[in-house]
TrEMBL record:
Source organism: Neisseria lisongii
Protein name (record): Probable malate:quinone oxidoreductase
Keywords of the record: FAD, Flavoprotein, Oxidoreductase, Tricarboxylic acid cycle
Name of the encoding gene: mqo
GO biological process, one term: tricarboxylic acid cycle
Required cofactor(s): FAD
Top-level taxon of the source organism: Bacteria
Catalytic activity line of the entry: (S)-malate + a quinone = a quinol + oxaloacetate
Involved pathway(s): Carbohydrate metabolism; tricarboxylic acid cycle; oxaloacetate from (S)-malate (quinone route): step 1/1
GO MF: (S)-2-hydroxyglutarate dehydrogenase activity; L-malate dehydrogenase (quinone) activity
EC assignment: 1.1.5.4
Length: 490
């Protein structure tokens, strides 16, 4: 007998938790069920050491505002990402104010920096700063080529560096570090206290549609493949990170045809020594090497996880064919179907430099990885660092009329034409933009409810529907208020 529920959220990560919170606030009477294949929530991409935790606000990520062919820097994309992060922050602050999140330690003030180390990159950095400083969301950013000043901001990056090497940096004191694992767990804890059903250790075997348009989700226990449980629902969200593609393919919806996925593993060097971590309070992002994908931008990060401070450096790319860290080595081969074979082949052909880059990364020795670290932290002791595997990222491959197939580095929302099912594919900037992504999903899937939801959404997100960058006074008021509530620097 199938268990009836209004909403099924597949995957116990930050996306499902965010959508669950929004729907519970807007439609308290709706019955919601979260299905997770592991024995707890937030163990895959939302787990702290499985993602960058940067709180992507485009303050330091140079790939969001590259140097244009005409020699100028356009801040538009960076501003879009910054706006989205502020939307997420506003919801979190409201949930703290209303007592729905009780522990603010999931977010910490950690300045965001960009650091470059040759004359051409220094010239670009100055242009980027000039393009950013006139924008409200970036107005507090500082720029310097003075080594003493940069050493004040991040001493480990300057101490021991050759005097002859040109350096330039930007510094944004309002940057943050976010533990999305802690945030997800708190959100889900609140949801279960409000009657949301959490089904752990459940693998989704099949998703099909009945004649009455209800979706039927068949699950089995992950530990023994037995103990079947079936759910019937009018709305399904596939928010299972890298696992969402395989689930989308099970639904058979026409909108999901032609999508493929290319998995990339992230590896990081982690320093667990608290004395070393205490000397560095910043996320320092550099320039990606030529031919490297945007997700490979090197960064030396301060991380706050479970009340302890760490230093992390990376990422280094790895390759495994599984779509989830705790997935199957058959994930990639099983995902290749007739409808996505040509897009995958075309995207592969067009991205040969990426393939070469990955092969080069896979061949790297520990000494070569440490050499990259020494570029950003010249006096690092190799013995203090351990290599850890972060989460799996599955880059989206989609059909393209001109090229046949393209590889994307962002996120892709795929929705059924009647709004009854949605899937989120892709990776960065991911978690940081969870709230605006889920708002877009809700407007796409429930357009008839947009008007009735508006008032409550504006209570939860005071800047809802407004571009803060274009509204100086309102931006100042909202940003300072959320910072105060969340206990972070403004």
């Amino acid at each position: 007998m199938a268990e009836a529920t209004d909403v099924v959220l597949v995957g116990g990560g930050i996306m499902s938790a965010t959508l669950g919170i929004l729907l519970k606030e807007l439609e308290p009477s709706w019955e919601i069920t979260i299905i997770e294949r592991l024995n707890d929530v937030a163990l895959e991409s939302s787990q702290a050491f499985n993602n960058a935790g940067t709180g992507h606000s485009a303050l330091c990520e140079l790939n969001y505002a590259p140097l244009g062919a005409d020699g100028t820097v356009d801040p538009t994309r960076a501003l879009g990402i910054a706006e989205q992060f502020h939307i997420s922050r506003q919801l979190w602050a409201s949930l703290v104010e209303e007592g729905k999140l009780t522990d603010r330690s999931f977010i910490n003030s950690v300045p965001h920096m960009s650091l470059v180390m040759n004359a051409d990159h220094c010239a670009y950095m100055h242009k980027r700063f000039d393009a950013f400083k006139t924008q409200k969301l970036f107005e507090k950013m500082e720029f310097s080529t003075d080594r003493a000043k940069i050493a004040e901001w991040a001493p480990l990056t300057i101490n021991g560096r050759q005097e002859s090497q040109p350096v330039a940096a930007t510094y944004s004191a309002e940057g943050t570090d976010v533990d999305f694992g802690s945030l997800t767990r708190q959100m889900v804890q609140y949801l279960t206290s409000k009657g949301v059903k959490l089904k752990l250790n459940r693998h989704v075997e099949n998703i099909s549609r009945e004649a009455d348009n209800a979706w039927v989700i068949k699950t089995v226990a992950t530990d023994n493949g037995d103990n079947p449980l079936t759910f019937r629902s009018r709305f399904v969200f596939l928010g299972a990170g890298g696992g969402a593609l395989s689930l989308l393919q099970k639904t058979g919806i026409p909108e999901g045809k032609g999508y493929g996925g290319f998995p990339v593993s992230g590896l990081f060097l982690r320093n667990n020594d608290e004395a070393t971590a205490a000397q560095h309070n910043a996320k320092v992002y550099g320039q990606a090497s030529v031919g490297a994908p945007p997700m490979s931008v090197p960064h030396l990060d301060t991380r706050h996880v479970d009340g302890k401070r760490f230093l992390m450096f990376g990422p280094y790319a790895g390759f495994k064919p599984n779509f989830l860290k705790q997935g199957s080595l058959m994930d990639l081969p099983r995902s290749i179907h007739l409808d996505n074979l040509m897009p995958i082949l075309h995207a592969g052909w067009d991205n040969m430099p990426l393939t070469k880059y990955l092969i080069g990364e896979l061949r790297k020795t520990k000494e070569e990885r440490i050499a990259s670290l020494l570029e950003y932290y010249p006096q690092a002791n190799p013995d203090d660092w351990e290599l850890i595997t972060a989460g799996q990222r599955v880059q989206v491959i989609k059909k393209d009329a001109k090229k046949g197939g393209v590889l994307q580095f962002g996120t892709e929302l795929v929705t059924h034409s009647d709004g009854s099912l949605a899937a989120l594919l892709g990776a960065s900037p991911g978690a940081s933009t969870a709230v605006p992504l889920m708002l877009r999903l809700m407007h796409t899937c429930f357009p008839e409810r947009a008007e009735t939801w508006k008032t409550r959404l504006q209570e939860l997100i005071p800047g809802y529907g407004i571009k803060l960058n274009d509204n100086t006074d309102l931006a100042e008021e909202i940003i300072s208020h959320t910072a105060k509530v969340l206990g972070i620097h403004h």
